[in-house]
Amino acid sequence: MSAYDDLMAFTRETTALSAIAGRLEWDQETMMPRGAAEQRGEEVAALEAVMHARRTDPRVGDWLASAEQEQKNDVALAQLRHIRRSYDRASKIPATLATEIARVTSVSQGIWAAARASDDFASFAPTLENVIRLKQEEGAALAQGGDVYDALLSDYEPGTSGAALEAMFSALRPGLSTLRAAVLDAEPPAQLSGTFDESAQMKLTRKLARTFGYDMNHGRVDKAVHPFSSGSGLDVRITTRTSETDPFNCFYSTIHEVGHACYEQNISRDYLLTPLGQGVSMGVHESQSRIYENQLGRSRAFTGWLYGEMRDVFGDFGIPDADSFYATVNRVNNGFIRTEADELQYNLHVLLRFDLERALISGDLKVSDLEAAWNDRFEADFGFAVDKPSNGVLQDVHWSVGLFGYFPTYSLGNVYAGCLHEALRGAVPDLDDQLARGETSAATAWLAQNVQTHGGLYEPSDVIARASGRAPSEAPLLAYLKEKFSGIYRL
Amino acid sequence: MSAYDDLMAFTRETTALSAIAGRLEWDQETMMPRGAAEQRGEEVAALEAVMHARRTDPRVGDWLASAEQEQKNDVALAQLRHIRRSYDRASKIPATLATEIARVTSVSQGIWAAARASDDFASFAPTLENVIRLKQEEGAALAQGGDVYDALLSDYEPGTSGAALEAMFSALRPGLSTLRAAVLDAEPPAQLSGTFDESAQMKLTRKLARTFGYDMNHGRVDKAVHPFSSGSGLDVRITTRTSETDPFNCFYSTIHEVGHACYEQNISRDYLLTPLGQGVSMGVHESQSRIYENQLGRSRAFTGWLYGEMRDVFGDFGIPDADSFYATVNRVNNGFIRTEADELQYNLHVLLRFDLERALISGDLKVSDLEAAWNDRFEADFGFAVDKPSNGVLQDVHWSVGLFGYFPTYSLGNVYAGCLHEALRGAVPDLDDQLARGETSAATAWLAQNVQTHGGLYEPSDVIARASGRAPSEAPLLAYLKEKFSGIYRL
């Protein structure tokens, strides 16, 4: 056995243990009895301790050093790149700091939830200060003299930087603001009204999942409080939710999660249970969920087919024709909440968070000034005032559990989706004819072959560049949104 | 930290990992997508490798040696007894033998299943010979000069022996045979006929589970191919199954599994995630499932209440009154299959297997003679001939996966249930009045306090002796069966 073989055998076991940890999270959100939480916490901690010991096992360092000398082929080099990144990361963070972060973030989410429930930012502020201080320490340990925010960002999106994202987002924001203002000045389409049987929603949502290529032999669909996708390879499960008055929430949550899940399902089987066997970054992951949900799922062509399906299931629900249905699906509403935002406004919510969290990590913004900074920025971008913290600075869980550097990957994913969509339209000229028949296979096969199958083989921006034939840019997304919403709102 | 504290902290983590492995098995039988089996196998193997390394970790031997000198209190001594047994067991078996057993039994179940499907014992015989040879080696390694079968038996029922069981079963068998012959000569009660909606069965089965004290806040009920109970402490899940024509299968499988599950749920919380925090043996476990299912669930009093519940749910299903219903529930039928056998005949099936498997392990019976030996014994005990191997020697999975020493714990559990039932009747004189109202709390509280709460604190036969106030004996079971079936069949 070469050092590379030893390393891969060891890594494969670690990846398998990590897959088990992911499966337990799924169980916790879908199946676990309520009263089991305390015991489960201890079980998960025991597994985490095993994985931590493996990630920092000194043999990994030795194997890596030897294997990096030996190996020449692209796949092996990519495996080593991932293992090296993970090993160096684990080795740079002092054990005491890792323990302290785990300890603080295990309780901070509860404090945030209580503060949100009582609309009291002040009761969360000391905890957030603590979390930020620890993340600053962690980022400094990782950055070793470089940019602290960039070091945190690379956990979610290796190969990019705060400065590069700032440049991209600065080019995106004015265009979105202008388009948003024009849309909200125009006559709005009808809103959906009435009630829609929830078990019928689940039945149609499973059909939608299959329609978008989700492989039920290697997955399953359950209900949960929050929609998510879980797992890699041969066992990738999704959740969705239902609301009697809002079937779109169910259907588009499902299509979104199917985008994530298909990415994991379609990675080359050669990479099963290895570092290459998972989506390469949060941004690329989000590009798949978003292109499934928006560019395909909310297109005029596909919504025409969905309109017929919904009429078959629910009868006449008050929308007279497929054109009106398309406009209703894509209706732009004022709102406070990121997760409820439409395709046009979503990125404005994210850009706000990106700017604020960078300032928090750099120390330019104090937690004591955060609520005011949020409210000022929100009013500047959206034209109306935040009415309470649960509709503002307290709405998202991310910062409470130390996820700094995560938010921008949502918008980066949208930007990537724009690039991929432009290339996909070129590659499949009759895409709309297919979507209008509820056929997504040409589109999903193109994405599978050009993006998904590679798993972690290429760096994130490289996989997008290879697939779309251009360096990633916000321009295709902006052009797509302008064309789409100008059409719907007759601008 | 004392050696005992170190040992318990380490053991607690190992127990938590083992709970995760159990949860994965549950997932595999209830939720896992079909296509995920291969990946799951690798995940489970990775976790098993971690647990094996922990079970044989030399630090455990050192901690044990020190802690056994230090500790005096009963709970600590019981924890050490369990850890010692597990450590010695793991240490005595050569790694090569453990690997070979794992390798052979991972494929032998499939070979058995194929042989059963084609009713061809010869195609399974070489595999079974292999399994028996390995189990003989394992038993010899564990016995270190003592009895090989006893060493295997102690994995499932520590503290007993093949000779002790033989004495007990020899006293049981003639009484069962005599009673069986008399019953089958008498006029049989009516059989259940008609169809019973399966979702209504599941609803009533959940009510039955709660009626027997199953805590849904720390458990859940799902459907699976085979009914089972899974987990300990705060997360104990059960499965059941439905058949449109056989609602008793659903209801009594549920009550049986609830007996297992309540044992695990009711163990003292002080023992959570420690060796004492699980049922102490297969025999004691089966005593709980059987007393819930039979002595309580199939009693005249309780079936009177169940009759009313079934009438409420299913309307008139052709059984005219509660007395007839009680007789129908307890109807004795000729049959080949152990798992379908009634309370009266069940132990005859088990005793047959116990005698044959002891002879296989001792070498007195060759695999080439096994099918004939099975068929001869079956005809002697049941009075009619086995028609095909799938109704005879190939019906059970146990031997194919190396479970030698497991079968007798089923009958030992029935014997224990007989002892406990006798004592319970003494302790709760108005038990029938309560059961007739669908109230089981006095009975289940008595079992919880006298048996279940102790977990692994006492040795198996001790916990039964303490609860029942007498040394375990087959006499109460035999007396109970004679009285019950003499009444139903008017002997």
Strand residue percentage of chain A: under 5%
- What proportion of the residues of chain A is helical, as a percent range? 55-70%
Structural class of chain A: mainly alpha
Assembly context of the chains: homodimer
Spans of at least 5 consecutive residues with low confidence of chain A: none
Order of helices and strands of chain A: HHHHHHHHHEEEHHHHHHHHHHH
Please name the two chains that share the biggest interface, counting residues whose Cβ lies under 8 Å from a Cβ on the partner chain.
Answer: A-B, 38 and 38 residues
Tell me the strand order in the biggest sheet of chain A: 1-3-2
For this structure, the CATH topology of the largest domain in chain A is Neurolysin, domain 3
Through-space gap between termini of chain A: 66 Å
Please explain how this structure is put together:
The structure is a homodimer of 491-residue chains. Chain A is an all-alpha fold and 491 residues long. Chain A folds into 2 domains: 3-153, no CATH class; 159-491, Orthogonal Bundle (Neurolysin, domain 3), CATH 1.10.1370. In chain A, 64% of the residues lie in helices and 2% in strands. Chain A contains 20 helices and 3 strands. Chain A has a 3-stranded mixed beta sheet. In chain A, α8 (162-185) packs antiparallel against α14. The termini of chain A are far apart. Chains A and B meet through α1 and α2 of A and α1 and α2 of B.
